[in-house]
Amino acid sequence: MLVSCVDEATPANDLQQLRTQIARGDAAAAELTIDRLVENKVERGSFSTFAGEAALLRGDLVEARKWLIEGNFDRETAPLGFRMLAELELREGNLEASARALAKARAIAPNDPRVWVDIGRLRYRLGNHRTAIEAAERAVELGPDDVEALRFRGQLVRDIEGMIPAAKWFAAAIEKSGGDTALELEYAASLLDAGNFEQAQAILSRTDDPYLKAVALARTSDFFAAREALERADKNDRQTAAARLLSAIIDVQLGNLESAAQNLDQLSREHPANRRVRDLLAYVLSRNGNEDELIYRFADQARGPQGSPWLRTLVGRAYETQDNREEAAEFLDLAASDQSALSLIDGDDARAAGKDAFARRNSIRAALSAGNVDRAVQEARRFSEEYPQSVDAASLLGDALLMRSDLVEARKTYQRAAQMRRNWPLVLRMAATLDRPEAARLVAEYAAANPLDAEAAAMAADGYAAAGQWREAAASLDRAMENGMRDVPWVLAARSVAARELGEGDGVDQLDWAIEAYETQRMSQPATAALLAALPEEDVQLRSELAAKLQALAGN
Hints:
Layout: H1 9-23, H2 27-39, H3 48-58, H4 61-68, H5 78-91, H6 95-108, H7 113-125, H8 129-142, H9 147-160, H10 163-177, H11 181-193, H12 197-204, H13 210-219, H14 223-232, H15 235-238, H16 241-254, H17 257-270, H18 275-287, H19 291-303, H20 309-321, H21 325-336, H22 349-353, H23 355-369, H24 373-386, H25 391-403, H26 407-418, H27 424-432, H28 436-449, H29 454-466, H30 470-485, H31 489-502, H32 508-520, H33 525-534, H34 540-553
């Protein structure tokens, strides 16, 4: 009810104006309208939802609580009001209170797709991935044209199916949005990750987001323009970890190695668990001639279960420059016999579930690392039963079962995890439980959905080669090298074999690829074999030396 000494049209107009201001995100104008409504003594329940939302837009959580905590909303705005209250509680870390507010919103409006989107987002944050997906599906079912429902479904599809399927959901959301800039930027980002640079650039050309333009330009190897765009980005955007990593990558490409090393060193100290930052820093140290520091900082990590083939190769090459052949051989052998499929999956949702769950997850990981497999299986099974909707819990149980060589149960557990979130480490584990044709099909599907994942593309090529599909194998290897694997010996060696099978360059291409592979790492067995296979028969002496070396590398 409107209680005012002025004409009723004025408060009604103010209420409509307030809705419009909130919709366009104009919190400052909304605040003035709210003051006017209070002054005119308009019934609080008719606008408390929007007053709380305006305060949230400004980041004023204290003011938002004053408007939202009592739940004094009229019937029309109550679902949104309780959603805003849930958002407030979430921002303040009160997850249980947030869930209670959403339960009230659901009781009032069980068929509101936005309520189900918020429920799904909270469930995902709590690590309840399976029920989050169910909420997203329910939201789309109730609101097939609802922008937020389509956006949220796209975000989950990105985690489960890959970048290309996700882009289709974002495109559908944009079609219904009528010009949502934030959504367009998210769509452009997904197109970049899907390798569709041209379409992403077309979208970004209509926006004024220099950071995303910098990302797009870097993806197309225009690093000078990328640097200029990044410098124009907002200061807060430039200070994010992602932007600093992008800056370091641009510096590497432009030859500014000292600047890149400083940036990466700081990022590595702030995010010690980030393997991408670690490996890139190791690469920069290698390029800059800092072999001593590279060995000092990363040799132990490279030797351990979390060492990537790339890091092991870099450490091995650093030892080679010091003429320490014995140490170099150890790391290069580790790199050649990649065990990454058995290294532990990084997870994050156990942390959201609370300190106890996080500690238990770490306990299971420690048991696996120490080789206490039976204890790890027992703990992981209890953890999975307690958190049946958690990707972390399912993945850890799968790891434990795989290390116990229980392939059937490990496969079932990994498949359950993949229904909630599918990433490359999980795909590797699933492949380890399958026979070769099924594993090759699984890897190829993942590589097709995530075309910028270089390692997936390289491994997909192996499956194509085994099936005699050499044209597909060559294309997959080319894509892997375009996205960062040009310095990986076995990839270059495989490309040499593909060139031979396809008859590229009448044998010249085969030899060129083999030489590049061998020069990249002379102790690589695949590179040595590729060069031996590519050399003309008349090169008797060199072929004999390579054959002897290959035999020694094979341990015969």
